[in-house]
Amino acid sequence: MLSTTPQARVFTSASGRNFQIQVTREQLESLTADLLRRTHDMMDEAMEDAHLSYADIDRVLLVGGSTRMPMVGELVARVTGKKPELSINPDEAVALGAAIQAEIVAAESRGQAPGLASGQPLVIRDVCSQSLGVIAVEDKMGRLVEFNSVIIPHNSKIPHKHSGMYQTVQDNQTQLEIAVTEGDDRDIKYVTVVGKSLLKIPPYPAGAPVEVIMSYDIDAVIHVELKWWTAPLTNTLVSSRSTGKPTLTKLR
């Protein structure tokens, strides 16, 4: 309602009592200012990753109900220098995107190339929005320090598979914790651990090599395989995005 009017009344209940509160657009914008700053940052990151400038953009489309907020359109116009397109319903744009994805999946299941009703080919590339990796340790002046080790960089085409080489740090180590991360930052404080498991391993000497093989599929499922080069042993982890974030579901 505040997208179209400067103020609105909100009805709520608490402790068995009903309340009527007047909220202004200015209050809403103040409460959501941090989200707007994050939107600006993500816009800049997207342009940088695409190796483009805002001058290279022909049209700007707003997608999703939250873009109805006047402050969002004003931000986009100010940053890009272009007034957003208003001819497309931002809610319907989400449904159209889902329909396009459904056509891609259906065409692939038929063994055909996806295309538009006009007969033009449809080319869309699905990518990882966040980097995927594991928490590793490194020796810094005699002290082991944890860091985020990226295996699949963000914007990698889906499905994707990549690996990294690691090694044990102690003699006769019998356990290994594998923590799957989502995020680009090297500092583990700024990434999300989306799944972890404590694995039992043979008592290898320090420096035993292990290859961590990670794959990410079109269904947002993360597969992590640990291949030990000292002996023919393999551990496999499976994670899935059931609620928008990948979470560890089982260990085989």
Overview of the structural elements:
With 252 residues, the chain is α+β, with helices and mostly antiparallel strands. The chain has a domain of 120 residues: Sandwich (Substrate Binding Domain Of DNAk, Chain A, domain 1). The protein has four helices and eleven strands, in the order ββααααβββββββββ. The strands form three sheets. It has a five-stranded antiparallel β-sheet, with no helix packed on it. The chain has a four-stranded antiparallel β-sheet with strand order 4-3-6-7, with no helix packed on it. The C terminus is likely disordered.
Question: What is the secondary structure topology, with strand pairs?
Answer:
Blueprint: E1 7-14, E2 17-24, H1 25-31, H2 33-49, H3 70-80, H4 90-109, E3 132-140, E4 143-152, E5 160-167, E6 173-182, E7 192-204, E8 209-216, E9 221-228, E10 233-240, E11 247-251
